[in-house]
Amino acid sequence: MTMRVLAAMSGGVDSAVAAARAVEAGYDVTGVHLALSAKPGTLRTGSRGCCTIEDSHDARRAADVLGIPFYIWDFAERFTEDVIEDFVAEYAAGRTPNPCLRCNEKIKFAALLDKAIALGFDAVATGHYARLAQIDGRPELRRSADAGKDQSYVLASLTPEQLSHAMFPLGGSTKTAVRAEAETRGLSVANKPDSHDICFIPDGDTRKFLRNKLGAQPGELVDDETGEVLGGHEGVHGFTIGQRHGLGLERPAPDGRPRYVLSLEPVSGTVRVGSRERLQVTELVGDRMIWPSGVPLDGPVECVVQVRAHGGIAGAVAQLRGEQLVVSLREPLGGVAPGQGLVLYRQDAAAGDLVLGAATITRTR
């Protein structure tokens, strides 16, 4: 019996080519576009935003070229609850979330996959750049062949069960090759710009978005070393740890050097700032651990940790201590905030780095 695959089609080049490869592999493919905005815009603004009416039309045109059925599913309410409201709540609590990681976990591989399985599909295919294999009946999630486009970080929150029903047809390809293939296949999205920033904040102004959601919550900017008040602000949600620009300092620090956000205290409204040196951390503690291959850490493990979708990588030793994951860094990292995801990798030059596990950072040292 032919495997039935639901291809998630965003309207971009990656998901279109992923769907095309699934068709070419002989699967019974159906395309679906997720309507994630309750009030979608008509047109995109360059590389900003997604889920516009233009995107849904681009997805439909790609499905027509491939000759596959195509549907639009309304997930706007679920996206608002699980991604947008979570994003706002995390910032209000002084944490820095990654909405793409949450979207993959809650929408594309929970809500979408659940509905796909209920309708009789065997797998969901997406245009993510990551490699997936089944080894001894267990899924293994690895970095993509294109290091610059690798998206294994934002997929590391997926469970073994979810990965067993996932397909990433682009994992072994480069972005350049994917665009060339789209051109050859006659897909009109071949040269469409990639989406950047946060999809539900198309103008890129996160501070304004949060201010509109949370209102003004005045507080003070305090020098972490001296305790001196250096200025005021309208809410801790307007800052992220590691931020340097736009702090609104009323006067320079005594030593005249740049200041960075070191910590956020939502209850008191205090934003502590200090030197770049005081920003460095050597230990991460996380909870909500997920093991994509179904194998938790067994004792201290030498690995590589990544704390941002692009960058924030360091050698480390990771181990479980009760209900927490403790990661000791071989070299310090800066700009690491509670709420960010940490992903552990085992380096393997031959087969591509393997994702060992993921967690949500609760504190740093």
TrEMBL record:
| Region ranges (Interaction with tRNA) | 149-151
Domain (tRNA-specific 2-thiouridylase MnmA-like C-terminal) spans 283-361
Q: What is its EC number?
A: 2.8.1.13
Plastid recorded as keyword: no
Any one GO molecular function term: tRNA-uridine 2-sulfurtransferase activity
- What GO CC annotations are associated with the protein? cytoplasm
UniProt: ATP binding residues: 8-15, 34, 127
Q: What is its main location?
A: cytoplasm
Compartment(s) of residence: Cytoplasm
The record places domain tRNA-specific 2-thiouridylase MnmA-like central at 208-274
Which reaction does this enzyme catalyse, per its entry? S-sulfanyl-L-cysteinyl-[protein] + uridine(34) in tRNA + AH2 + ATP = 2-thiouridine(34) in tRNA + L-cysteinyl-[protein] + A + AMP + diphosphate + H(+)
Note the site residues: Interaction with tRNA: 128, 340
Task: Give a short account of what the protein does.
Answer: Catalyzes the 2-thiolation of uridine at the wobble position (U34) of tRNA, leading to the formation of s(2)U34.
Identify its protein family.
Belongs to the MnmA/TRMU family.
Q: What is this protein called?
A: tRNA-specific 2-thiouridylase MnmA
